[in-house]
Amino acid sequence: MRFLLLLLLALLQVSLTDYLIRNPDFYQLDAYTWESGEFREMRLGEAVAGSAALDMDELTAAMIDHDYDLTGEKTIPSDRFRESLLLRRRPEDYRKLKQAYETVFCDLRYFPVPASSRAGTPDVTYADGWMERRTYGGERGHEGCDIMGDQRPRGFYPVVSISEGTVEKAGWLEKGGWRIGIRTSSGLYIYYAHLERYARDWQEGDKVSAGQLLGFMGDSGYSAVPGTTGNFDVHLHVGMYLRTDHFRELSVNPYWILRYLEKFRLKYDY
Ligand SMILES: [Zn+2]
User: Fold this and answer.
1) Ligand 1 mean position to 232 CA, how many Å?
2) CA 187 / ligand 1 centre spacing (Å)
3) How far is the CA of 176 from the centre of ligand 1 (A)?
4) Which of 25, 53, 90, 220 has its CA 20 to 30 A from that of 235?
5) Residues lining ligand 1 (ion), CB within 5 A?
């Protein structure tokens, strides 16, 4: 009896594989998936935020299987069968998508604002503000996540590097104010904007280690005049960009990535 049941299960699995391979639209995966709006939204959810370590094959397979939306998931469904299926059907597309997730996650170490060791210090807050409407410098969508520190004056909250990497840009930018852009060794560009001041005189090419103090949170920017402050509440804008086949800078939503990083938070005395 048990043997017959196992045989039946085995046959069902074979026919399911057969069906899936013959129906290329069954899974949302094509050559542009890893540059699509669905990918950029990074709707990773509690499943990723709660993970201590991420398996990129599981993550890639789960995201494809859930239409790039794990926001309702508490655990990442682990399914080696599905993963091998995706690999067999579209190996190049699967590889690129997985590589994109690796670029995003592999070098990330710390949440960019350390926790305060002093009782009574209000913590920073943030929400998913991806693609919210912004109007300064023209109508556009918000390409990043704002970590608010408006309970304290500019210059209060330290900002540390999420990853190791190399300084690619530093100095004044009209929209970003005092900003710093760091390229990780995997190729992710992390952009920190609106600083009050830098921890040191950063130059292009400087090496940065994960957790190193970059500067302090502020409200600089929204002006062509360097040093302008006060045009919005004190916050740290975090942007994340990838180089892809078709885009020099493809922005992805940092919200769930920051949620994932909350587990890895330095403690500073401030
Ligand atoms: Zn922002």
Assistant:
1) 10
2) 22
3) 9
4) 53
5) 144, 146, 237
Which of 105, 134, 162 is a domain's end point? 105
Q: Over 80: is that where the pLDDT of 215 sits? A: yes
State pTM to two decimals: 0.89
Residues 141, 242, single domain; the answer is yes
Which band of pLDDT confidence, cut at 50, 70 and 90, is reported for residue 16?
Answer: low
Q: 238: CA distance to ligand 1 center in Å?
A: 7
Task: Indicate if 131 and 262 belong to the same structural domain.
Answer: yes
Can you give the residue range of the structural domain that contains 34? 2-105
Same domain assignment for residues 97 and 184: no
Provide the 10 A C-beta neighbour count for residue 72: 10
Distance 50 CA to ligand 1 centre (A): 24
Percentage of the chain surpassing pLDDT 90? 73
Residue 41 gets which letter from DSSP?
H
Residues present in the chain in total: 270
Q: Phi-psi bin for 67: left (phi > 0), alpha (psi -120 to 50), beta? A: left
User: Is the pLDDT at 78 greater than 90, yes or no?
Assistant: no
Amino acid 143: pLDDT: 94
Q: How far apart are CA 69 and CA 43, in angstroms?
A: 5
Over range 168-194, report the average pLDDT. Answer: 97
- 241 located within any domain: yes
Average pLDDT, rounded, for the chain: 90
pLDDT at 22 over 70: no
